[in-house]
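Standup notes
- HV: blocked on the assembly model, inputs below
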Amino acid sequence: MKNLKKLVILLAAVLCMSVMASCQKRVAVDIAPPTTVDVTESISIPAYLSQPIHFAFDKYNITQESRQILDAKIAFMKQNPAFVVTIEGHTDERGTYEYNMALGERRANAAKKYMVDNGINPSRIMTVSYGETRPVDPRSNEEAWAKNRRAEFIFKY
Amino acid sequence: MKISFGRIVLTGLLVFVLLNVGFSAAWAQVLGVVDITKASSTKVPMAVPDFTVGGGSAKANEVAREFHEFLVSCLNFPGYFNILDKGSYLYDAAAGDTAQINFQNWRAIGAELLVTGSITVNGDNVQIDLRLFDVFKNERLVGKRYTGYVRDKRVLIQKFCSEIMMALIGNKGVYNTQIAFVSSGPSASGANSKEIYTCEFDGYNPQRLTYDNSMSILPAWSADGQYMSYTTYKNKKTDMIIRNMQTGAQVLVDRPGTTIKGAWMPTQNMVAASFSFSGSQAIYLLNPKGNFVETLVAGGGANLSPTWSPDAKKLAFVSSRSGGPQVYVMDIESKEIKRLTYEGRYNTQPSWSPKGDLIAYSAQTAGYHQICITDPEGSFVMQLTNSNGDNECASWSPDGGMIVFSSTREGVSRLYVMTAFGAEQRRLMRLSGEQLSPAWSLHHLE
């Protein structure tokens, strides 16, 4: 009986401590600011999602090869509805500045249209044109120009 | 220089006119329309002897030398005058007015115009008398006295140069104007940043205007200089900013899609600029508050890069309506649109001369962009640049006599100037980094 009493007191003490501990824990969690950086880092963005699509000179039509690349992004967005994407349109250096801004925009919009036509809500897709200002390859030759005529995809959670 | 048939006729006609009419005030008035800004091969010979110096101190002599040197550099800049070599002058003291000057001495060395100066320096203060003479008519065309601080050299000399241009061609020329441009180098806000700068007409004193720590590009002045519009990426997309240059107040025009370059009406403070919120680039008219007043050009593909005729009755712009980019001209009242450029597949960046008679644009030829000019009817094409590198973004000086443009002829993009007919191409300034998108102000600072 004495032992039982001791046990009850001990259990009560443990229970009390654990409640206090959980209370403290809960209070601590509430006070801590939301750590959004940790959340996004904890969800990995597959590398293939950042694969760009490419275009011919002064063109903005989506090629057969680009469709396959876009289809993979569309499949991911359908499986991960919390993700949004910014499509950046880029050009090579050969056009002039202002027209290249318009061309970069048409490239980003063409990619967006393909994704929307294939079931992605347009509110999940932002577009921006950088024209000729951000080449991935700064050289002035056909190989570099072909790399620079592109749309890039920046996914965010 | 590549030329087409129409241009030979035009240039030939001008040279004929200039050769057959000697220089005089009457000449300047009669030919004010076909003025010396077009006389690329027939510069007017001008003598600018050293100033006479009152006081005679070493400091006064040095100030006089600096003022004279800057005057000669200002007069040389637009390419209208051939400043005769000082060694040829028969007479060097030039303080007096018409009665004291032996014009025969100046005619003998081939001068048609004579500029004299006398300067008195008193501490930090300076008084300078400057005169312009027509050597053939024995006549003073301009006589001005300026007083100010020694440090006001650039302001005082440019004021007098504006007076010279008023007397000869009826406008103030390039003096006391500004050029806005985009520079990527000196700003400390990262490799991808671009900021807007302004400098004086001759590239002097570049000053950073924007601190958006982003890409601020494509500046455009209002005709009176009160406003500047530009495109910024500071919100991770393109927005238009309309900045009051006096107060620094800014209006952000935030619409979905891309906004490109604005062009202010020469006749009032309204700006034409392209936006794509309707789905494709279309050109709209906005007031300085950023309110959309009117749709100017929409449909048929992308429409962008507007530029106004001086009377604001016509608008030239770039459109992809026929496939590749070409320049078109729209009549504002009738909305009738005519294609202006037919040579080549890629013609962009039209810039209408403030005199109204010419439109400069960038034409892609053999891989590079070159600055060309045509008239508003497209009846001739004249290629002004021919360098290994892209020559882009022509912008006219307010008198229509010069063009500032960007070029990669020496590697990275830098700013250059030339006459309206492509003569005397030279680099405008030394500044680290890359410079592009020059815009010459139409207004003159006081």
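- HV (later): unblocked. Strands of chain A lie at 53-54, 84-90, 125-131, 150-156. Residues 16 and 26 of chain A are 15 Å apart (CA to CA).
- Next: hand off to the docking folks.
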